[in-house]
Structures are given as structure tokens and as C-alpha cells.
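3.2 Worked example (two chains)
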Amino acid sequence: MKAITDIKDNQNNKASKASGKRKLNDLFWGYLLILPTVLGLAVFYIAAFFQNLYYSFTNLGAFGKYKWIGMENYINVFSDPKVPQALINTVKFTVISVPISIIISLFIATLLNSKIKGLSLYRTLYFLPAVTMPAAIAMMWKWLYNGQYGLLNQLLAKVGIEGQAWIADPKFAMGALIIVGIWSSLGMKIIYFLAGLQGIPKAYYEAATIDGAGPIRQFFSITLPSLTPTIFFVMITSLIGALQMFDLIFLMISKTSLAVDSTMSIVYLFYKYAFEFQEKGYASAISIVLFMIILVITAIQLRLQKKWVNY
């Protein structure tokens, strides 16, 4: 009996050692595969952030020489009249574009989740803006908005409405940018919502149908509560993306346009100070202020999500 017990112990020890080696091997390959991403994050994000934070306390200019000036840049940020204007523009773009884009993308995703003809074609068409370069999107919409030969004004003229210089007039420029921002962001949001919708068990809808619940009641009683984690994720990423709005303004609004001040976001203001005025220390302070705003908003959202997100 002792011999049999020894044999079993040896087998168990060998199996345990083999399992341990396999786990170590899996861990090694796992860490090796994520190493490029970790190095990229460390060099281009974490190290760059702390470098930027340091420069925000200096008077760094165009040629790399700088001097420690303490909180002077931050004092100037709060006394610079361009900063609150840029913040207002950024908040206006975010507050309007994010909720509207979420509602529209959720509606479209719900339609694309149903059984309709040409479903693959519709999904491809709606996803196209997500894989289109921002420069191409900006050029297309500049042509559509053009006050002299733009398609939008030509269509309005056919119904007797006078067109406008949509992206050159301060009254319309922000609204025009918001429309482009919403349109260009729909593709990714629809993909997220489609993934969330397909994760909801069909048994829920079958039970609701047996109980006599219609499509609208099913949407508000089953779909919407089940999608709250996806809605929360989309809301977080959309808010961060909208608060960092830059490319559309840079590509669509001319630097000499009258609409520059009414559309300038906080990131665009950072760009102007850093690369046009060559005041990189002051620009770093602006970017740190934006970082703190995003951090606070994200923390508040994470705190509030416990009250409405169903996991």
C-alpha cells in the first residue's frame, strides 16, 4: 500500500510541477505580448505627462532653454481672458454633442440590431465615418458648408432659403462643428451599442412578449437597463474625446476667420500657445488645467454610476 501511495504522491507532484511551469510560461508570454504597449504608455504618456507637468512651472520657449518660475503660468492661466472663452466653447461643444450623439447612435444601433434587409450594408455605411481620416471628413464638410458653392446652400436655395457662410460666421460656426462632431462619432458608438444589444439574452424579450409587452415597453424595461454599462462607457469616452476637441477646428476654421474666437477649444488654445506663440511653458499649464478638469469630471461620473448602472 505504501508503494502505491508513493507512486500517487509522485504523480501528484509531477502534475503540480507541470501545472506550475505552464502557468509561468503563460505569464511570461502574456507579459511579453503586452510589453510593447506598456513601453509605449510609459514613454509617450506617463513620462510625457510628468515632463509636461514640470514644464508647466517653467518659462520654456522655442529653443529649449527654460527657467523655473513656480506658479506664474497657472496665475496667468486664470487671468487670461482667452482661457474662459475657450473653456466655454469646449463645454458648449461637449454638452450639446455628447448627449445627442449617444441618443442617435443608440437609436440607430437598435434598428441595426433588428432583422431587416441589407443589414450588413447599413452597418458598413454607418461605420464608414469611424474609419475615415479626420482630414477627409473636414474637407468634405468644408465643401458642404461653403457659403458660395457648397451643397447645403444650393439645396436651401432650391426651397427659397438664403444660405449662410456656415463656418465663417461666428453665429453658425459652432453649430456647424457640433453637427460634424456628432456625425463623425456615430460609427464607433453604434458598434459599442450593437455589442451591448447582442449581449442581452433573447429569453428576456420572449418572456416579455408572452406577458404582452410591446416593443417600446421592452426597450425601456429590458434594453435600456441592460445597456447601462455600455451607455456609461460610451459617455465616459465621449466626454473625454469632446473635451479634447481639436482636429475639426484646426482643419475647418481658417486662422483668419471671424469665427476663430467663437470656436476655439481649450486644446486649440494650447496648440496656439505651444506652436504659434512658442510659449511652451504656459501651454503646458493650460494642458494641466484641462487634465484636472477631465479628471474631476471622470471621478464624478465614476462616483455617480453606482446609482444608475446595472452590472
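3.2.1 Second chain
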Amino acid sequence: MTTFFSIPRKWTDRISNTWLNVATFFLLLLPLAIGLGLVLESLPLLRTHSFFRLIGSSDWSPLEGKFGFFPFIIGSLLVTLLSFILSAPVCVLAAIYLTQYAPRRLMQTMYFIIDVLAGIPSVVYGVWGVLVVVPLIGEHIAPAFGLTSTGYCLLSGGVVLAIMSVPYMLNMLMEVLRNIPIELKEASLSLGATYWETIKKVLLRQGKTGIIAALNLGISKALGETIAVLMVVGNVVQVPHNVFQPAYPLPALIANNYGDMMSIPMYGSALMLSALLLFIIIILFNILTNSLVYQRNK
């Protein structure tokens, strides 16, 4: 029914399409705007220092104008790799069990627990790490290997990050395995394959693209995490030689020193460059993951 204030249908469609296009265009430009802003803020330091010298040097003394990011880059990569090694196998196996073997009630309960874990603030994970993980590693696990550690170390950061990554990875892995057509499983079983052979050779292969995307989500989450990591990782500028030594990831560097950047020349630009490095690492990792997905789908 047409009223006096009604808008003609063709104008409604045009307005809707315009807003949809604007929203999509804004999202497409968002990563570019973030990267461009970080580059512009980093330029003062890049004009006076070589980029490759900055990322390859371990000398860090802002008061003397020395900004070597190598220990921070290594710290970020190692703590992320550690969290991935600890969380990925657990998430894949748990997703297989929950979607293929567990009763439906247990799977629904697990979805509730995932929502709870995903909603806990980072600082709560950090406090839990300080109260539980750090003493456990410093007083029991490190001595068991004949080493001494305060507990504020790479392993503590990896454990806390692994737990924080679980809800994101597990939720996506469960959705991937649940959405694989049941006809594929039934066909495999009808041909005489065992249940485990069907999971390994049909379900996991069919869902490989989604599994890669889920693991990528967990790693991206771990790479950018800040508060929980800086509370347990030790924050010592060095390249750790074992998992019981402290480290200093890039997010912790930014969070710990952002208030001091106004009083030291080039310090603000150095912190922006550290954010840019983190941004580049995440982009490179996503490009690698998407390449794997593309090769799989080709």
C-alpha cells in the first residue's frame, strides 16, 4: 500500500545499495588506513635509521637513540609458536571427539564453555597466569629439567596464550567438521572403511581449508595479545635460548612504554614502528595461510 510519505521503490533500492557499498568499501579500506597511519608515524625513525638494521639489531637503549627490534620480533614469534604447538593438537582432537563421538548434550555444553572462555577479559587470564602458571613453572617444571627460572618466561606466555586461543580455534573447528556433508561419511563407511579411517581420510581432508583458517585465527589472536602476555612473559630485552627464559614480545613493548614516548626523542616513532612490524607479520602470515587455502581449492 502506498502512503503519502512512502519512498518510491527504485529510490529505496538505490539508497540501500549505496549504504551497502559504502559499508563494504569502508571495510576494504580499513587495513590500508591502519597500515598507512603506522607508516606515517614511523617515518621519523626510518629517515634516520636503516629498516633492515633496525629489525636485525639487538641494541635497545632509547635514551642513546638505539632501537634494535630483533629481540622483540623473536619474542613475539616464539611465544606465538609455543602457544600454537600447545593448543592446535588439543583443539583438533577435541573437535573430532565432540563432533563425531560425544553425545549431543556434551557438545552443547562445550559451546557454552567456549562462549564463557571467549568472554573472559585478557587481564583475568594474566592474573590467573601470575597466580598459577608462573609458580608452577618456576617451582616445579623448570627444576624438573635441571634449570632455574622465576616462572616469568616464554613458556608461561605460551601456556596463557594457548588457553586464550582455544575458544576461537575450537569453535571454528567444530563448525567446520559439523558442516561436512554426512553423505561423505556414510559413503566411506559403506565401502568398508573404519570410523577412524573415515575421519582421517574423508572428514579431515574435506575440511582441510576450514581447519587451516581456524588455526590461522588462533595464531592471529595469539600474535596480537598484549595484557596477559606482558604479565607473565618477564619483559626482558633478550633473545631467549630456552623456554624458561624471559622474553619481550612486540605487543608488550607497546603497552609497557606508550606513556614514556613523549619524553624521549624518536621513542614514539619507534613504538609506532613496532606496531607496524606486528601488523606486517600478521599480514604475511595471513597471505601464507590464504595461499595454502587457495592451493587446496585450486
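3.3 Remarks
Strands lie at 60-61, 66-67.
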